[in-house]
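Bug report (template v2)

What were you trying to do?
Predict the complex of my protein with cytidine-5'-triphosphate.

What happened?
Run completed; filing so the output is reviewed.

Input:
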Amino acid sequence: MPVLLPKEFKQASEIIEQIEHYGYEAYFVGGCVRDLLLERKVGDIDIATSAEPHVSQEIFEKVIPVGLEHGTVIVRHKHQSYEVTTFRVDDDYSDQRHPDSVKFVKTIKQDLKRRDFTINALAMGKNGNIIDPFSGKKNLKNNLIKAVGDASDRFKEDPLRIMRALRFSSQLGFSLEAKTLDAMESVVNEIETITMERIVQETSKFFSGVYVKNGLYYFRKINITKYLPILKKNPYIIDRLPANIKPLNAFASVIAMLHFIEPDVAIRDWVKQWKCSNMIKSEAENIYEALLTYQLDGLNRWLVYRLHGCNYRDFTALVNMLFREKLTNEKVKQIRNSLPIESKKDLTINGTDLLELFPGKTPGHWMGETLDQIEKEVVLGNLSNRKNVLKEWMKWNLHETD
Ligand SMILES: Nc1ccn([C@@H]2O[C@H](COP(=O)(O)OP(=O)(O)OP(=O)(O)O)[C@@H](O)[C@H]2O)c(=O)n1
């Protein structure tokens, strides 16, 4: 029975129709078919075709040649982007892969054969008919992650697939088939050959999985910590993860959690060794600061004021995991909405006012420090954000000669 196509697939099927019109084959492939069959939210819609990239470039008006040597172009259609890739086999999935590692092949079946897991080796025609040479549908039904063909070969082609398997077990809650798991265990050391950027991407998806507890079971089982920076020297950190671990959306939150569990490993060391951006570093510090404040004082206005909005959800999850509380996102938002100011800029006084008030003083650190103090008092509700009130406060607390 063909699958009923949702709107986004119907629009994408216009691309398939167009390719077929020119006498070539084309199918939806990979994660989008898997997620459609699982009734999960579908991410990118990828298309595989017998047409070579130069043909796609001729067929479509808006084509971005993102990886011609690997057979990939992006087709823009009705304001959406679709990766269209020629049927191929690939012996090398690394970032620095050599163009010679890719060979174009004739059939969709050959293309599906080089893919990592049976649940990802599914193709679907424009009318929803499924092509499933490796029983991917059965494995989806049985919640099983099973490598296509020889598992060791699949993992040796791209050791990142070991992390992908763990990531799918965390996202989908699936089990790992015995031979697939054995193969992962026996080649797990090859993880060290992969660039940190790819490892971080997968680890981040791993910790955001709804079934992260399930994923962690396999993570521990294959001893992957032996081959990951920092964790190889401190494997106990993983054992100390909260038993009621919850999904975390951002990798910064994962770093904050790991640093909270083992404060001897600094956030800057995680960031350096896992080659993360400065943005991840500052968000990790922001969340960690909030966790420490919570541990000392509980949820207060100052904590919420300092915490970046993008971190609310993960902070709430971390509090519930690490302190076994029942904090809700709504509670945090409620406090945020009750704050008298959103940032220092909203204070009714500024540096110029300070200098006017104390003409004898020379500009310096005292100005920033005073404004910091006032900011905190206003946020905590101890001072009203009215110019005359703040001026009065300063007269009492600061002296001309200080
Ligand atoms: N190392 C890899 C990476 C990808 N693939 C294949 O390429 C498809 C697309 O890969 P990608 O977009 O990275 O992952 P998805 O499986 O689509 O999952 P998601 O989009 O959720 O990350 C996969 O389904 C799989 O068939 C593979 O065989 N080996």
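What did the reviewer find?
The chain has 20 helices and eleven strands. The pocket of cytidine-5'-triphosphate is lined by residues 30-31, 43-44, 46, 93, 115-116, 120-121, 158, 160-161, 164 (CB under 6 Å).
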